[in-house]
Amino acid sequence: MLFLFLHFDQEKLFAGVADCLPCMQSYAERIVAMRKRDPSLFTLRGGTIDDEFFHAQDDLNLMLKEFMTLMEGRTRLEAFWIYWRQFWQKDVLIQTLESVDQMILRLQERGNLINEVLWSDRMCYYRMCTLLDTHNSATVKLSKFIFLVCLVTRKDVPYHATFFPPASWLHHRRAIRPGDPRRSTLQQYDPDNEVPHGATTPFHPEWFARTIPLFDTPEFHDVVAEMDNSIRENVNALMDRTSFFKMSFSKMRGVLAKRLDLISQTQAKIIGFVITGAVGIIAKMNVIDALSDIQNITSAVLKHLVNQTHT
Question: Residue 125, Cβ neighbours under 10 Å: how many?
């Protein structure tokens, strides 16, 4: 029963088992729960510019802490299960680590412009639907992490579609075509920016599910466009968020690399133990065979001597 409980709990944390990063829907649920406990989180507090700057840094740190908690395990038992699962999926762990390295490299190649990185990876979800492998799956999750942080740190939220669960027609779609008439339903908003009744703020977690084409929504395009405009007005506008993402990816890489080293050491010790045991067994068998040969030779010599005596 304990094994089944752990199994299903981890299936929620690492849905699909295609990579070693947390399920983004579970992560989004935790962000929403934090906002529910403290409505002042992930929004403007109405203070001075300096106050809002430090509040934003606190919000970013909380978001990173929650992600790393899911990645490392909330309890010792959960951390052990994550380690045990990845012990048998070392190849997936290695490829996930490579995906994080590639994200760091793309950020450097794009001149540390997080908006260009996010836009360049907008087709990663489509690629994942076409070919579900570790690299595509991990890239989707890392891009969703970037988008989620950028979405939460917006000054206003013009679209209300993300406040409610995605429509049924969105599930299991590889893309939302620009000419699709249903696309307009995702652009409904209140000019006064009033939060509608029954809304889940700052967003509904189901939008970050594995089966939703999040990167084709108007919300995604507007977030990237806002960052593009900010860069045009001030070249250093995204410097703080870029620094945050570089630190976040470094932390993720550190956790994965440490786990890989630990798994490699454990496997090396197990292999060494097995080889030592096998050599010991073989050596023992050789000794027994040698004693048996000596006994046979001794018996033959004694028999020969007895025959000689009688003769």
Answer: 25
**Domain span holding position 134:** 2-192+201-256
Collect contacts of 238-241 with beta carbons under 8 A, ≥24 apart: 238/113, 238/114, 238/115, 240/53, 240/56, 240/57, 241/60, 241/114, 241/149, 241/150, 241/153
Amino acid letter, 295: Q
Neighbours of 298 (CB within 10 A): 10
Of 22, 144, 141, 7, the closest CA to residue 71 belongs to 22
Q: What is the pLDDT of residues 198-240, one digit of tens each?
A: 778 788 999 999 999 999 888 888 889 889 988 888 888 888 8
Within-domain flag for 271:
no
User: What's phi and psi for 23, nearest 5 deg?
Assistant: -65, 125
Query: What's the pLDDT tens digit per position in 250-268?
Result: 999 999 999 999 999 998 8
Q: CB neighbours of 217 closer than 8 A, spacing ≥ 6?
A: 161, 162, 176, 186, 207
Nearest to 55 by CA among 43, 39, 37: 43
Asked, for residue 148, whether it belongs to a domain, the answer is yes
Does residue 153 form part of some domain?
yes
Residue 38 identity: D
Write out the H or E segment, with its range, that includes residue 288. helix 239-310
| pTM beyond 0.85 | no
- Contact predicate 51/171, CB 8 Å: no
- Give the total number of structural domains in the chain: 1
